[in-house]
Specification:
8-stranded parallel beta barrel; alpha+beta; binds (2R,3S,4R,5S)-2-(hydroxymethyl)piperidine-3,4,5-triol; 38 strands
């Protein structure tokens, strides 16, 4: 619900479990409160209008601006910075009006959350009387989902062009407190490992300037009470629906009051806004959880599954796949692919994915990106007969693309050497021997739409892995005039989103999985088009625990690709038991990434059992509520998590051990968020326990003589 108290000019955004208050004071929109849900009442007298005593600085430095800009001695971080036609960047935004309406408007040219008759939106317009720049802040509240959506659009109502130098789409002050921050850091093969540290005083930021959300920092940040755990404590969190460079920041400034912000990265963004034009920011997603990190993740997961992911695959069971990348790399032909697929079909797999190497002359990663034409040396009959043979085995056919890239050794590059991002007179820096197409250009977008559509129409293809294997250097469009050069990165994103929009709408039956050297672009922007992402190129079961644990902070299991691969593992050379590799992979969208035709009889039996289990549990795993139980970054030997079905009738508990330890007492795993009085029967023993007992007494974890052992316990409500 959204309430407006006209006399006090007070706005109250009330979700099912949170409230958010703002007030217009002397024309300035100030933030009052974000936290547990309150009844609709006037809280403004509880929050003094100006600080009791503001010596030296003006009182404006202590105002909790809803949208801080450069004005009247506000010295903390600004959410918006605009160089106006006079050349200065002062911007005194004052309340000019508001509107409350049912529903939520889609954000033009950008992905955004959608509604199904369950949303209400408040738009507040602020205006600078001198420059006539106005900003409309948009807030959407949902019924049934505890995520607040925020975005803003800037209108240049003046008579001259202005330059946007910094646009942070959401900024919020938090109450004074003793806080930690938690974020997800990494690199290729080590994505989204959680890091928890004390909230530093001053300015702190994590970011990507890479032209993609990136492996290094996920666009997600929490500020949480120091004592917060998985189950308890207040947690404030932000992410956004955008896949390009970003900055997330906190600032604890003069009065020790923290604020946090999210937006595009100001180092790699400016926007030239002509008189009369409008600029639209991406959308931020804000979550307040009064019940710890699991409470935060439950809110993000439910929302991402139902209001970010969309289309026919949103609720459909995700197919169990076998992908040939780690089985063959570039060295395959049709016969080899079919030998893997045949075994996959016998094991119970439902989809065969042909990875990199099927097009152009791509025997290595040094050529052919852009030439989306089948390599007849490897597939003499082309894609159609391969698809038919797979379908005859009972398998769907999936295919890999890396559409945004161009190899210097490609027919496309020979025809259009200026289609890549570059700077005239400088080296075109290659990474993985490839360059990046200028997705901001309409002709490039149209080429890709056409080339990809031809392939997808040429055979019965029902899955696409959309890869992207390098970040931007010299990331500029050669067709933009100099005052617009720094728009290149954002224009790239807008162009990419256009291509994705057209292709996914044109092929609605196709399941798209995004990928970027593993999980280098795992964000809500991509999830609007592709409901799953390849989590990491690191398929080692032990490494995956930390990666999937961290990823689960924001993203539901149904968005994470997770595959069983060979041992010694290709990334770490580690040897882990086959069962454990399966038990880790069932924490996401389950698949295999190995040469199944070489699987031993013993492992084949285990693979058949694992596939049967995944099929039985798929609804719980993909649509249930996921809770983290034992933190592998805190416990020196264990990791555990659980899935509870939507109707709470089925519980799956997964426990993973690293090393065998001699002479130790059995550890216990305590379940979470169960209905206390319900009774659950454990499938393997038949014993029944109350939800309360499972949460408070917990289950003993067996002692074992196997390193990297694991257990999956299934319970049914009786
Ligand atoms: C990077 C991906 O993450 C891998 O799974 C694989 O598809 C390769 N690219 C292929 O080049």
């Amino acid at each position: 619900m959204i309430f407006y108290h006209a006399e006090q000019q007070l706005f109250h955004l009330q979700g099912d479990t949170y409230s958010y208050f703002m007030q217009v004071r002397n024309g300035v929109l100030v933030h009052l409160y974000w936290g547990s849900r309150l009844p609709d009442e006037d809280i403004s007298s509880l929050i003094p209008a100006v600080p009791v005593y503001a010596s030296f600085d003006s009182e404006f430095n202590r105002l909790t601006y809803e949208l801080p800009t450069q004005e009247k001695g506000y010295f903390s971080q600004q959410a918006l910075n605009i160089v106006n036609a006079q050349g200065d960047d002062v911007c005194s935004l004052r309340y000019a009006g508001h509107e409350i309406f049912a529903g939520k408007k889609p954000i033009p040219q950008l992905p955004s959350a959608y509604e199904e008759g369950d949303a209400e939106t408040l738009e507040i317009t602020l205006r600078d009387p001198l420059t006539h720049i106005s900003v409309t802040l948009s807030y959407t509240v949902y019924q049934g989902f505890d995520v607040l959506c925020r975005s803003l659009r800037i209108q240049n109502g003046g008579s001259d062009a202005v330059t946007l130098r910094n646009v942070q789409e959401a900024s919020v002050f938090l109450p004074k407190g003793d806080y930690d921050i938690l974020h997800l850091k990494g690199s290729h093969c080590r994505e989204r490992n959680q890091l928890r540290t004390a909230l530093p005083r001053g300015f702190f930021s994590l970011d990507s300037r890479r032209g993609a959300s990136g492996h290094e920092n996920n666009p997600f940040l929490t500020v949480m009470e120091r004592h917060a755990t998985q189950q308890q404590g207040k947690v404030y969190a932000m992410t956004h629906v955008y896949s390009g460079s970003f900055r997330l920041s906190t600032d604890v400034s003069i009065d020790d009051r923290p604020s946090m912000m999210i937006g595009m990265h100001p180092d790699v963004f400016t926007w030239h806004l002509e008189a009369g034009d409008t600029f639209q920011s991406p959308e931020a997603l804000l979550v307040f959880s009064p019940n710890g990190l699991n409470g935060m993740s439950h809110r993000f997961h439910a929302f991402i599954r139902k209001r970010i992911c969309r289309g026919v695959w949103r609720d459909a069971p995700r197919p169990i796949l076998v992908n040939n990348w780690e089985a063959t790399y570039f060295g395959f032909n049709e016969e080899k692919l079919l030998s893997i697929a045949e075994k996959g079909a016998a094991i119970g797999c439902e989809l065969f994915v042909m990875d990199d190497g099927w097009f152009g002359k791509r025997d290595q990663d040094n050529c052919s990106l852009g030439d989306w034409v089948v390599d007849k040396r490897k597939l003499p009959g082309g894609l159609k007969p391969l698809g038919e043979k797979l379908n005859a085995l009972g398998m769907r056919f999936g295919i890999w693309f890396e559409p945004e890239m161009i190899s210097p050794d490609s027919d496309l590059y020979r025809a259009h050497p200026d289609w890549c991002l570059h700077v005239d007179g400088r080296d075109r820096t290659e990474a993985r021997q490839q360059l990046i197409l200028d997705m901001g250009r309409r002709e490039v977008q149209d080429y890709l739409i056409d080339a990809l559509s031809r392939v997808l129409e040429s055979a019965n293809i029902t899955y696409v892995k959309w890869d992207m294997n390098r970040n931007m250097t010299e990331g500029f469009s050669c067709v933009l005039p100099k005052e617009r050069k720094l728009e290149s990165q954002h224009r790239y994103m807008l162009g990419l989103y256009r291509v994705l929009d057209v292709i996914t709408k044109h092929f609605p039956h196709v399941l798209f999985e995004s990928c970027s050297g593993g999980g280098g672009r795992f964000d809500c922007g991509m999830l609007c088009y592709m409901p799953q992402t390849w989590t990491s190129d690191d398929t080692d079961a032990y490494e995956r625990l930390g990666i999937q644990w961290g990823t689960s902070m924001v993203y539901p299991a149904s968005t994470m690709g997770a595959h069983v691969s060979v041992v010694p593992n290709h990334q770490t050379m580690r040897i882990t038991p086959f069962e454990t590799r399966c038990n880790v992979a069932l924490g996401g969208n389950f698949g295999f990434e190995l040469d199944l035709s070489k699987l031993s009889d013993e492992d084949t039996e285990k693979a058949i059992a694992a596939v049967k289990t995944v099929k039985e549990l798929r609804t719980v795993l993909q649509q249930g509520t996921f809770s983290r139980l034992i933190d592998p970054t805190v416990h020196d030997n264990l990791c555990a998590w659980q899935f509870l079905s939507e109707d709470e009738s089925q519980l799956v508990v997964c426990v993973y051990q690293r090393r065998v330890k001699p002479n130790v007492q059995p550890e216990r795993v305590y379940m979470a968020s169960l209905p206390a009085d319900s009774r659950y029967r454990r499938a393997d023993t038949g014993d029944t326990y109350s939800g309360s007992a499972l949460m408070n007494v917990g289950l003993p974890i067996p002692t074992t003589w196997t390193d990297y052992d694991s257990w999956v316990y299934r319970f049914e409500k009786v």
